[in-house]
Amino acid sequence: MSALNRNILALREMSPEEIQLILDQAQEMKEILSRPIKKVPTLRGKSVVTLFFENSTRTRMSFEMAAKTLSADVTGFSASTSSLAKGESLKDTILTLNAMKADAFVIRHSASGAAHFIARHTSARVINAGDGTHEHPTQGLLDMLTIRQHKGTLRGLTVAIVGDIAHSRVARSNVWGLTKMGARVRLVGPRTLLPADVERLPVEVYTDLRRGLSGCDVVNILRIQMERQDAGLFPSVREYAQTFGVDRSVLREARPDVLVMHPGPMNRGIEITPDVADGEFSVVTEQVTNGVAVRMALLYLLLGGSNDAAGH
Amino acid sequence: MRLVIKGGRIIDPRNGLDTVGDLLVEDGVIAWCGQHLPDAMALEGDVVFDASGLIVAPGLIDMHVHLREPGFEYKETIESGGRAAAAGGFAAVVPMPNTDPATDNRATVEFVVRRARETSPVRVWPTVAATRGNENELMSEIAGAKEAGAVAVTDDAFPLQSAELTRRVMEYCATFDLPLLTHCEDRTLTRGGVMNEGLVSTLMGLKGMPRAAEEIHVARNIRLAELTGCRLHILHISTARSIELVREAKRRGVSVTCETCPQYFTLTDESALGYDTMVKCNPPVRTAEDVEAVRAGLADGTIDAIATDHAPHAAHEKECEFQAAAFGMVGLETALGLVMTRLVRAGVIGLSDAIRKMTVAPAGILGIPGGSLSVQSPADITVIDPEERWTVDPESFRSRSRNTPFAGWELRGRAVATIVGGQIVHGDLVRAPRGRVRA
Question: Is B183 helix (H, G, I), strand (E, B) or coil?
């Protein structure tokens, strides 16, 4: 019997207690990553299949390292090498892979809801590694873990998320995770990059960067996709950088101990200036480490046999 | 054969009739209709059907279905769709022309007419595509299609984008006295959209289709109908503001009618949460506010007709990612139950009004026979048990497809028998719950 008897599809569907459990477990996992020998036998004999229907080297590597550190066997499947190129449906792919008896599927897909769909067609545990513009729950969790490590708690903090909110699964997972844990969330961006009915989310909405950052404890800056300019959602990258790019000057609006976060990969000079990306407030590389810890925690909680923490 | 339907509640909105009485069918037409069939008119050998407790209505007409033939016979055929119609209480259906090849000229309309005659148990009134190949560029040969039997022109599934082209199509429709049935959607606003735009699309991370995309075209088409004198019918109206636009246009005397479908008075976008592709349709199911407006529009007569937009799709076209799933749901076998349960029983509209919107109203809009129980009219009759409780089971559908969001719904009210031209095409009158045949 695993400690967390469920799939991880969306933070919107999770309780504060479950999120707390994962963050606490991830904190313990992080200790393993600082050991000279980064291997514990906890998930020996468990098989994890990473299904990446959309390219993402870093998220995939992070899951693979997490699984291997816990001694699970990892098999990768990517769209380019798969039968999808031959026109096989997602359902047929999943039924085939399900028949191979994996214990868990880690899924990245360009279609919102793909992880939900897959979860309906497999008996294995499913972890959503990003589905379309819906959610990216492990990114939300690693962002929360990073904030908690610096601030001690999430409760009462003000977190501004800046950029292309409409198309961001990272933004959605952060909104749900952070608000469930008692933080206040601000969404900052031009109207063209804010989703429909955004005012009905449990957030404050700002279309002015300076006001949006005023008094913030954390600024989470989203990557701008060049295709949004082509779609006419802002006139030019240059104007975006001038109006919504985070630089040192605008960062002075935030609290003096502000944390600067970015899910990566960064467009330096567009949504974030290089000096902010590399400056004293930036915790971008810590986010990456915490990503491995969070994914270890999830695999352990979903597949592990007991509540005893790994390797103790 | 002479058939006497005795003691049912006869509801014929065309003739203002709502009375318990008898109906005599002879030689495929209604020979007598009234409170008590005179003894002198009863003959030895009449088949007598006791309809006490049942509703006897004109054969229902569904003015908006997709029968998929020719071209998509794996989804539906004129035969299977016709059987589904009969099972759902419909005596006549109006298939849309988004077939392959498109039903866009005399020959293709003739094909539909011939296949219907050969295979369909119910009447099939074809429509013709507004543009050749549904390509939104050149007008179809509408006059030839009319001669072959097309009763309306439509851009369904391929909404006319250019206002200039729409104007010319309307002028041409007016020339040949055919109504234009328009699917109102500004595609520049809905590109990539898969559901209603709003809070729920934001929660689900799905591209939305704003209500304005429909409303802009409703407003545009109403103005163009005024300009051209074309009889305009708005297909599957779904938003509060669209309905307000039609209400206002009717007040001014514009020649405009509209229909809605059961999904628009029963479902909201919240039913998509969980990524259930069965609720994906176009226009998308909207918000609670819109559902309320659709009900109000039905009640005050702004919405003239109830159709289904029966849109069959194969299992694999729905068992996939939400954004990849086909738009549409089947409706022929659930519509009457949903109307009876969610409109009539719920007190939104009266029984007679509901039947009007499924009989004489569509017949009037399209200028086709049927839709009444007038003496000497074709004996198209639907017998309804208003009390029958049943559960929607897609496995029992006569349609070739099963894509319904209503699976498992408990409904009350169902067609006991469907009669087309005096022939019983659905229902076993002997085994009907309340009916029995006496020799």
Answer: coil
- % of residues, chain A, pLDDT over 90: 85
B191 interaction partners in chain A (CB closer than 8 Å): none
For chain A, say whether B44 makes contact (Cβ under 8 Å).
no
Catalytic one of B186, B309, B353, B385: B309
Q: What are the two backbone dihedrals, phi and then psi, of residue B321, each rounded to the nearest 5 degrees? A: -55, 145
Task: For chain B of 439 residues, list the mean pLDDT of each consecutive stretch of 10.
Answer: 93 97 96 92 87 96 98 98 98 98 98 98 98 98 98 98 98 98 98 98 98 98 98 98 98 98 98 97 98 98 98 97 97 98 98 98 97 97 97 98 98 97 86 43
Nearby residues of A308 by Cβ (< 8 Å), 6 or more positions away: none
Question: What residues of B are in contact with residue A169 (Cβ under 8 Å)?
Answer: 205
Q: Do A91 and B324 touch (CB under 8 A)?
A: no
Q: Return the H-helix or E-strand segment holding B408.
A: none
Rounded alpha-carbon distances, angstroms, from residue B140 to B110, B160, B291, B319, B350:
15, 13, 35, 35, 40
Give catalytic status of residue B12 as yes or no: no
User: Tokens representing B234?
Assistant: 């708005």
Asked whether this complex has an ipTM greater than 0.90, the answer is yes
Instruction: In whole angstroms, give the CA distance from residue A284 to residue B155.
Output: 53
Per the DSSP assignment, residues forming a β-bridge with B423 are B420
- Whether residue A260 contacts residue A251, with contact meaning beta carbons closer than 8 Å, is answered with yes
* Chain A CB contacts of B205 below 8 Å: 112-113, 131-135, 169, 172
Residue of B199, B208, B322 with shortest CB distance to A113: B322
